[in-house]
Amino acid sequence: MKKGLQLFLVICLVFMGLGGIVQQPAQAATDDSLARIQRKGTLVMGNSPNYPPYEFQVNKNGKEKIVGMDIEIGKKIAHDLGVKLVIKKMSFDSLLVALETGKVDMILSGMSPTPERRKNVDFSNVYYSGGQDILINKADKGLYHNKDSFRSKKIGAETGTLQYDQAKKQMPGIKVVGMDNASDLILALKTHKVDGVAKDEASATAYAKNDPDLIALKGHFKTSKAEAGNAIALPKGSTSLRLAINKSLNTIKQKNLIQKEYLVTAGSYMKVNTQNTSMLHYWSYFAKGVLYTLGISLVAVIIGVLLGILLALIRLGHIKILRALATAYVEFVRGTPLMVQIMFVYFGIGVFVNIPALIAGTIAVALNSGAYVSEIIRGGINSVAKGQVEAARSLGLSQSSTMRYVVFPQALANIWPALGNEFISLIKETSIVSIIGVTDLIYQLRIVQADTYKGVIPIVIAMILYFIMTFSLSRVLRHYENRLRHPATE
What we know:
Blueprint: H1 2-22, H2 33-40, E1 42-47, E2 50-51, E3 55-60, E4 63-67, H3 69-81, E5 84-89, H4 95-100, E6 106-107, H5 115-118, E7 121-123, E8 132-137, E9 154-158, H6 162-170, E10 175-179, H7 182-190, E11 196-200, H8 201-210, E12 214-218, E13 233-235, H9 239-254, H10 257-275, H11 283-316, H12 320-334, H13 338-348, H14 357-382, H15 386-394, H16 399-429, H17 441-452, H18 456-485
Parallel strand pairs: 1-5, 1-6, 9-10, 9-11
Antiparallel strand pairs: 2-3, 3-4, 7-13, 8-11, 8-12
Helix pairs in contact: 3-9, 3-10, 11-12, 11-14, 11-17, 12-14, 13-14, 14-16, 15-16, 16-18, 17-18
Subcellular location: Cell membrane
GO biological process, one term: amino acid transport
GO molecular function, one term: transmembrane transporter activity
C-alpha cells in the first residue's frame, strides 16, 4: 500500500512538472512573434467552422471548403504579412488550449475579448461589433419579445462564450443549458429541449434567414466595452504580431470590407449550402468520416493489442520494477477519461513534438486501448488451470513453449469475446477525436448539421453507419469465436 502511494505521488509530480513546462511557450521573455511567422512563411489560424456567417464549410461540386467572414479576414492578414494562411479546425472549446500550447498562431473564430480570456491571451483590436440575439421557434413568436420574456424558461448557449455568461448574469429566473456545438443548440431548440438560444447577432440572423422555422429576437443584453465585439486572440506577449494584425484590421475598417465584401461573400456561400440540403448531396462527407473512423480504429487495434500483450506479460513476469510501472500505467489510463488523454497527447506532448491531430488522436486511442487489452489478456491467461502448466513442464516443455502451445491457445478462447467487445467499443470511442479537429464521422456529422441547418437527419445517418460498422465487425468476430470453441476436425 505504501509503495502504491509513493508511485501515485511520483506520477502526480511528473504531470505537474509537464504542466509547468506546457505553460512556458506562452511566457516567452522576448517577442519575436512576427519575425517567427515570417521566417516559417505560414500563419496558422485556429478556427471552429460551424458558426455561419463567421466560419463554416460548404460543399461545392463535391469539394469541401471553409469559408466565411473570419476566413476572409484571415486571408487579408496573411497577405499583408506576406505569408500563407493555414486553417487548423477544431472544437471551439479547444482553441484557447491550442493557442497557449503553440498549435496555432492566432484564433480567428468569432471570439469575444472577455476580461477572463485576457488573463491568458492577448487580443487584437475589435474587428466586428454586433449585438446579441435570441433565436426562437417561429411558432413561439407571440410568447417572447426580449430577454425578459424568458423567466422560468431554458436558454441554450455555447459553453465558454460571451452569450453563455450574459444569459446567466442578465436573465434572472432562467436555466442556462450549455452545449459545445452550435448545431446541437439549434437541434435542442427545434426539439423544444430549450426555449431559446442566445447567439451573436450575425450568426442568429444567418440561421433565421436560412431556416424558415426560426426567428431572431433582439436580446438587448448589456455589454461592457471590454467584452464588446469580436477580436483575434494571440499568445501572451506577442506585441509585434498584434501590431501588424491591427494594421490590417484598420485597413479593413477604413475600406469597410466586412460589410461591402466579406459578409456578402459569406451570404453567397450560405445560399450554395441551402440550394441542396439532401443527405445524398453530402454523401462524400459521411464517406470521409467512415474512412477516418475505420482507419483510426484499425491502427489503434493493432497498436493496442501489441501493447496489451506486452503489458500483460510484464505484469505476469517477475521483474518487480517493470511490474510496478506496467501496473501504474494500466491503472492511470483506466482511471482517466479518454477525452483528457487525447487532449494531453495533442496539446501536452505536442509542446515538445508537433504531432498532427490525426496521429495524436490515433496514438491516444491506441494507448488507452492497450491498457484495457492487457487486463483482458492477463485475465485470460490466469484463467488457465495451473495444472495445465505443471503438466506441460513435466513433459519437458520450456516456459516459452508452454505459454505458446498450451496456455495461450486455451486463454485465447476465453479472452476472444471480451477482446471482440473492446474492438467494437473502439470504433465508437474514436468519436471523441473530433474535439481536436480530426475529421471522423462525428466531426463530419457536425459539419453537415451546420451546412444544411438540419439537426436530426444527419444524426440518424451517423447512427446507421456506426451500426453497420459495429454489426459487421461483431459478425466477423462471432465467426472466429465459434471456430475457436469448435475447431474443425479433419
